[in-house]
Structure formats: C-alpha cells, structure tokens
Amino acid sequence: MSTQSDKGTALITGASSGIGATYAERLARRGYDLLLVARDRQRLEGIAERLRQDHGVAVEVLRADLTTKMDLSSVEQRLRGDAAIRLLVNNAGMAMEGTLAEANLDKVDTMIRLNIVALTHLSAAAAARFGAAGQGAIINIGSVVALAPEMFNAAYSATKAYVLSLSQSLQAELGKLDVRVQAVLPGVTRTEIWERSGMDASALPAEMVMEVGELVDAALAGFDQGELVTIPSLPDAGDWAAAMDARAKLGPNLSHNHPAARYQ
C-alpha cells in the first residue's frame, strides 16, 4: 500500500464504529493513511470511501475477527512486514455484564482473546518492527476500571488492568528505541459496546457519559503532549502524578529477604 504523506499508515483495530471509527477520521484529518481492521467489511468499506473522499488519504480495509488465530495471525504478519505502518491503535475490545460466578465462561474466554491476547500479539509485532526502525507509536485503549476495578465486573476490569500494565512495561522497553506507547483510559463513552454487552448507558447519569468525539480528541491531545497514560475525564493531572509518586515509594520495599515485621 502506498502512502501519500510522511506520516505513514495507522493501523486501527475495531475501526468499524465508535472509538475506532473516530480515530480513523481524526488520523485521516492529520494526514495518515489508514489500514482499518474489523469484522464488518461492509461498514469498513463505507468508512474507507468517505475518508478517501474527505481527506485524500489512502485507506485499506482488512476484514478480520481478532478472536480467531488465523485472522489475528494475518494482521500480526501485516504489522511485522509493512514498513509503511508507523502507528498502531489497539482499540478492538468487548465488555460483558454480570459477576464472574454467573458469567458464561465461553464469553469470558472470547473477551480475553480479544482484550488481552489479540492486543498482546499486535503490540509485540509492532514493538519488534517499530523498535528495529527506531520510530513508531502504539496506542492501547484501556479503561478507567483498570484503576477502580470494584466499579465494574471482575473479568472485564482485569482485562483492562492488563492493558494498562502492558503499556507501562512496554514503554519502559521501547522508550530507549524512540518508540512511543500511550494507554488511553476512557470512562463511560457513548459507543455500541454497551448494546453488545447487554448494558444500557442511558441508565447512567448524563454527566458520567462522554461523547466519542470528545474522548478521541482528548486522547490525541494527550498523545501530542507525550503522555504515557491519558485519562480524558480527570480534571487535575496532578492526581495521576501523585498516584504514580505513591507507587514509586513502594518500589524499594517490594522485595526484601525477610517478611515485614507485622507478619512475624
């Protein structure tokens, strides 16, 4: 796929609606060519045609179900082999309602394959090639429940805690290679994920629900500012800095040769 600008190509998963489709529009506006990945080819084609006409960028569609090994492998290999790709937006994800004890574990397994396994494979592929090239960026879409797991159900919250942890560790590995990593932690956002998971966002207080355009614009502003973790709803960035300072203070005491006195 040829590129039309020096920005190269952005690969966006879950690009057929919601956050992914909005990232596609915003990045096309910035001059990126696009490789759009999702299960719904028809919707992808419609988005692609509109973005080509509106922004004059090259847009390719790749139909893939990232919960299947074959489709995930095809996207992974594309990432490893296409030097034009300089930005990966790991947006594809799913949620589910209910407690873990009551959950359909087949659905839990599918959610883990999408939210964790697929994101990990694509992050690894991007890390290998971007690191070798000394340029590129990975944006992982997580959730604020990574910081407040009691607010939502156990399995979904745990998958998003993984996204945050992976992103932080990956930045430590890739930062010295001039590769950027950003974890975006949205709160409740008005997207189709609610309907698909059987939940009703309209039942929540209006002041808790962010429109998807505002979410993505804030996330990209955080990216431009060099943030490793972007929490679009958080009014005072100092609160996050204080949390990270508190975490750092734990560091020297997390591994000693004897238990703390209170356990003896």
From TrEMBL:
It comes from Pseudomonas cavernae. SUPFAM superfamilies: NAD(P)-binding Rossmann-fold domains. Gene3D superfamilies: NAD(P)-binding Rossmann-like Domain. GO terms for molecular function: oxidoreductase activity. The keyword Protease does not apply. Keywords: Oxidoreductase. Pfam families: adh_short. CDD domains: SDR_c (cd05233). It comes from the Bacteria. Signal peptide: none annotated. PANTHER family: ALCOHOL DEHYDROGENASE (PTHR42901:SF1). This is SDR family oxidoreductase. Belongs to the short-chain dehydrogenases/reductases (SDR) family.
